[in-house]
Structures are given as structure tokens and as C-alpha cells.
User: Fold these one by one.
Assistant:
Number 1:
Amino acid sequence: MYSVVEIKQRIFDIHGNLLILDESTYVNTKTKARFVHKERGEWWVIPKVVLRGQSFRRSSNIQDIKNRLHQIHGDEVQIDENSFIDVHSKCRFVDKDYGEFFNSPHAVINRKSSHPHRKREKTIQTCLKRYGVDNPMKVKEIQDKNSLSSNSSGIVYHWKTGTKMVWKGGYELKILEYWNSKKIDFIWHPETFSMIDGRTYTPDAYLIDKDLYIEIKGWHRGDSEEKWNWFHRIYPNSEIWFKENIEKLGVNTRSK
């Protein structure tokens, strides 16, 4: 740990008289302290950042914000000056193609955040270039890896095709074992569908002989109900199976 004398000397060696440490606020190199920049004013930051050579605080000057915004986004994004408060408060931005959005200048400049639609478009282009599809969750290997990350997951093989099928949750396993034992013709995770807002939905199964999509649920988590309702409106040849539906097939849903 540096003493106040040592830290001040190191700051002087790096920044000269441009930056001064308020000694009364110094605790250690990992705790924020108050600095005063000769040109930019007060700045609270952890000292180790200053020791890495960074001497300018995030500017609260609107012209500086506009200049830096142009450096990052060119003519794509403009800031509404009337809505600007400081770099960490949300304000209004306007994307030349997608319209207004709200975020902090810090996020738009330092994190290169942009309008949600532009961000989505960039993500789509990256996925198309890398995987040949518009969403990584449409890649079966990625989808399977994501499912297998769950503690309650595993692999079984299709009775007819020998295809590897990744299940997540006990009910899915029970149904897969049932369909395999009954030699029912089905496709597991048949297709991934894109929603308008960029999210994806993959039904659990498709029963070929019945032309019926199946979703297997213990209960809805997160946005799963919203996704299901969206899918069911578009594909009315779909059913959601909860515990009671599974048990009607004669399947014992209790854990072994």
C-alpha cells in the first residue's frame, strides 16, 4: 500500500501539475478518492486508474460529449442537448435510421451502445457471417450446449434416427423415454422461430403423424409464457403439456 506521500509523487511523475490528489480522501489505491484536474475540475476515481496514466475524467461538457459521440458513431447518432444532465444520467438520443432512444452518454460513448434495433441488426449480421443464421440459438450445437449447462439435463437418442436429443428437466426426459418406448415418430427441437423483437422460440417437439407441435412445461419461467402465447397464435396446431397432461398418457412423473 502506498502512503499519501508516495502516491502523490507517483501521480506527479506521470501527470505533472495537471492532476492533484485531495489527501483527505485517500484510503488506498483501490478506493475512490477525489482528484482535481487543472482543466477539467473535480474527478472521483480509484487511484490505480490514475497510475495507469488516465488523467481525464468523463467530461460533462456537452460539446465534448458531442465530439466524442461523433468519433464513436459518426453521423448515425445525435444527442438531444436539452435532455442532457450529466454523463451518467439517461438522456435522449436520435438514431438517423431508427429514431429516438434513451441511454446515458457514458453507455453510448464508452460502451458504444446504440439504438436497440441497430444493435439487433449488427448482431444479426455477425451471426449470419459466423453461423449462417440470424441468431446463435438457431445453431443446434449452441442450443444443446446451453441446455446441457443446466444441472437437470442430459442426452438420450431417438429410437428411429439415432439423433442425439438434449433434454432439460425431468418432464422432458419422461416424455422422450415414453415416445421412444412407444416408437412414436417425432422430431425433437424441430425448428427455432424468430420473434419480431429479436427473441427466439424453439418448441420442444413435433409429432409428425399428428402435425402437432408440443411444448413441455413444469411451469412458466421468465418470458416463456409470452413466447408460448406468441407461438400458439401463429401455429394453432400446438399444445402445451403440463404435469397433468403428461400423466394422462400413463407416464409416471415422479422422480425415480
Number 2:
Amino acid sequence: MHSDSFFVMGKTHSVCQDYALAGKLAMLRNYAVLSDGCSSSAHTDFGARLIAAAAITCAESGALAPTTVCTLAKMTKPDFFSTSILDATLLFAIETRIGVAVEMYGDGFVIARRRDGAIEGYSNDFGNAPPYMTYLLDNARMQEYLKYNSGKLSRVYIETSDAAHRTIHGETAHESITHKETKVEELKIAEPTIAQFCTWAYSSRLFETNKYDLVVLASDGLASFIDSKDEAEPVENLVRDLVDIKTFTGEFMLRRGKRFVKSLADRGLRNYDDLSLAAIYLGELK
């Protein structure tokens, strides 16, 4: 396996509040992590880095879990700053014996390339108001957030697969089929405990080596590409290009990220929000 990362500032930002890291843990397992800081909170570019670094430290002793995320929030709390510096999401992927385990706290995307060529996409949508770890440290903020958000979470699944080839005027055209499912989950507890809130905001998934060869984490900046008329480009139109990686040596996600953003810019699309990507390549089957 091999891991790498990439992040870039959005067109409407003056500082990048996304951060991504990839590498190997002490036990030589690959990891990939990203954190997306809240645009309306101060210094979350630092907070995102703190959370990403703390997640790696926690993962040294095992994969993240809802209870670990609670510990992580307390561990990263700076005494010399407001806790709002940690208003940031967390996506974490780690190599396991049978594949790659992904842990997700807040919004963002997980894009997985199957060995049969199909692309799967998973996302958590909190209506542009994701839960942040700071809410685990301040019950008043948690309650204020739930009143604003109504405790609603949409888990979205997208699958894009090659359907067929057809001939038009003597030329072969490529067709694909996209399937999309949305499941709404609501936190109906009026005053949830920290553990209940954390479990609702958290999700995990395992991608087995025998079925997948690439797992890419992406911040919600992937959904921020717009054209010259400020119309949004659907994420399902972008995922195939995002994972179209031929060579996985060296900084493969850095190369792909740069080419991805440039190719979209050439098509007149720009990302108004910061974008971070972190990936693990599972390798060829032996």
C-alpha cells in the first residue's frame, strides 16, 4: 500500500483552512487524514492541523472510534485560544490487515475505486452545518447547533459504473450509469449525551483489498466547483476524473490533485471552497 495527500485554497478564501496528511504509522501501516476548518471561525487553519496531527497520535494505538473522537477533542483543546479554533471536520483512513478502514466525523466525501472499474462515493451532508469536535467540549454550543441543524444528517451513496459502448456516426461513444441513494438520519434526542451526539455525527466503513484498489478522502470542497454562471458541478461528474490515476509512485495524490484542479479550470470550473484530498492505494492483487 501507499498513501499521499494534497490540499489547495479555494478561490474565495484568503487562507486555506483545509489540511491533509499521509504517511506510515510506527507499525508501518499507511494512513491518510484530512481536516476541514470552519470558514466563519477564527484560526481554524491551525485547528485543522492540530486535529489531523492528534488523529495520527490516537491511531498509533488503534483505529479511531466515536469514543476516541471525544478523547481527541479534549486532547487538542488549546488553553491559550478559544475552543472554536477546533471547529473542523475529520476524515481518517488507515491500512488494516484486510483493507482500508475509514472513519468520518462531520461532512466530506469518501471516493472508492473498485477493481471492476466502478466508482463508489459516500458523503455525509449536514446542510452546510457540520458538527464540530468543539461541540463535544461545550454542551451549550451542542444544543445551539442542534436547534440550528434540527439534528438531521443525510448519508449519500453514489455509484458510477461503465454501462456500454455504442457507435454514433462510426465513432465509439462511452456510456455510464450513475446510481444515487440518500438516507436521512435524525438525532431525535432533545438533549443527547456526548457519546450519543458523537455516534450520530460519526460513521465508518471498511474497503476490502480484494474489492477495491484506491480510497480517496475529500473535503466538502469537492462539491464547490462552479462554472462561469456560478452553477454547481455535480460531484458525480467529477469522481471518475479524480481517481483516474495511472502511476502510484511518489506523490501520486499531489500530482493527481494538481492536474484535477487544472483540468477543471480549463473547462471553466473553479473551486470556491478549499479542497483537500488524502488517499491510500491498496495495490495490485497478488
